[in-house]
Amino acid sequence: MSAIDYFKQAPPISRTIAASAFTLSVLVYTNFLSAYWVLFWPSAFLQLPPQIWRLVTPFLLTGPQLGIIFDTYFLYTYGAKLERASPKFTQPGEFFMYIVFVCTTIIGLNMVLTGTTVFTAALVLAFTYTSCQDDRGQMATFFVVTIPAQWIPFAMILLTFILNGPTAALISITGLVAAHLHDFLTRLWPTFGGGRNWVPTPAFVRRWFETKTDTVTHKPYGTAFARAQSGPSASGSSSGPLPESWKSRGSGHRLGGS
C-alpha cells in the first residue's frame, strides 16, 4: 500500500489535523511563513476583517525540531483512535463537536491562566486523556515504563514539567481539564446525575458527517458495516426493515395454528 492510499484510508478528521500540523510547522520553522500569522492574538479579532483563522492555527503549530515529529504523531495516533474506535463517538459529527468544545475550552482557560499563543500541546493532552479513559483498566507502555493506561496523560504532564517547566505543564493541564469537562457534560452527568447532554451534536453537523455510501470498517472488536445515511431511510420515513411490498400483507399466522 502506498503512502497516498494509507492517507486516504485514515480517519478524515485526524489525518487532516496531523497533515495540517506537520505542514504548517515545517513552513514556520523553515521561515517560509512567519509565526506572527499563526499565533493566537486576541487583538486580531477586533480588527476588520477579523483574522478568524487564528482560532485554528494555534492548535496546529508543533514544537520545533523533533517536536514536529512527536506532536504530529501523537495528534494522529490518539485522534485516529478516538475517531475510529472510541465508544464515546458513535454518531456522525460527535468527534468534530468534541474537538470544537475542547479547543474552545482550551482557549478560554489559557487566556485566563497562561496567556500563551500556541495550544497544540493542550490538544495533544486532550486527545490522550480521552483515549486513555477508554482503555481504563488496561496497562500501557510510556517510553520504557509500563503503567495503567489512565495514568499516561499525567505521566506526559510530569515529563513536560521536567523538560520544559511549569508553564508548559500548565498548558498541557488545560487540555486535560477541557477533555474531562467534555466527558463530565456528555457522559458522567447524564448517566449518573440524571441530567442531559450539554454538548449535543447539531443536526447540520450530523448531516456533514453522515455516510453517503455503504462502508465496511475494521474495528478492534470486529467489522462494522455502515449503510448510507442519506435519502428517505436516513430521514426516518421508513417504518421498519421489511420491503415496502410486504407492508400491505396481513398479520400472518403461525404454521399449524388455527
Automatic annotation (TrEMBL):
Q: List the biased-composition ranges (Low complexity).
A: 230-245
| Residues covered by region (Disordered) | 226-258
Instruction: Write out the transmembrane intervals.
Output: 17-40, 52-75, 95-128, 140-162
Tell me which Gene3D superfamilies the record gives.
Rhomboid-like
Q: Which InterPro entries does UniProt cross-reference here?
A: DER1, Rhomboid-like_sf
The source's superkingdom equals: Eukaryota
Topology in the membrane? Multi-pass membrane protein
Q: Which GO cellular component terms, listed alphabetically, does the Swiss-Prot or TrEMBL entry include?
A: endoplasmic reticulum membrane
- A biological process from GO: response to stress
Question: Sorted alphabetically, which Pfam families does this protein's record hold?
Answer: DER1
Main subcellular location = endoplasmic reticulum
The UniProt keyword set, sorted, is: Endoplasmic reticulum, Membrane, Transmembrane, Transmembrane helix
Which SUPFAM superfamilies does the UniProt record give? Rhomboid-like
The free-text function statement in the UniProt record for this protein reads:
May be involved in the degradation of misfolded endoplasmic reticulum (ER) luminal proteins.
UniProt lists the family membership as follows: Belongs to the derlin family.
The name this protein goes by in its record: Derlin
